[in-house]
Design brief:
The protein is of the alpha+beta class and about 100 residues long. It has three helices and four strands; from the N terminus they run H-E-E-H-E-E-H. Strands 1-2-4-3 form a four-stranded antiparallel β-sheet.
């Protein structure tokens, strides 16, 4: 299956299903604040597992009790694609069980 860049309208429509996610420049982004450093670290490990399963990886940043992601698809020139939204959807599901605010 070929991955194609999404149009601005497609991105806007898909963002409506992912509260808290936004486009910053050419990347799909989200930050989570969790209850503790341990919870944030656990989320990072879970996100790493999701990314490996999808073979699609974001820039992932761990703070004291925060986790931030920024992702686009390098193989199409750094554009946002459906693959980025699939990663976001799975991360969002995982974060729900980790006390994300």
């Amino acid at each position: 299956m070929a991955v194609e860049p999404l149009s601005p309208k497609e991105i806007e429509d898909r963002l409506s299903d992912l509260p808290g996610w936004a486009v910053d420049g050419d990347r799909l982004t989200r930050s989570y604040r969790l209850a503790s450093h341990f919870a944030a670290t656990a989320l990072v490990v879970h996100v790493a597992q999701i990314q490996d399963a999808l073979d699609h990886h974001s820039d992932l940043t761990l703070g004291y009790n925060t986790v931030s992601l920024a992702v686009n698809t390098h193989s199409v020139g750094g554009a946002v694609t459906a693959l980025d939204f699939e990663l976001a959807r799975q991360v969002e599901a995982a974060a729900g069980g980790h006390g994300a605010e």
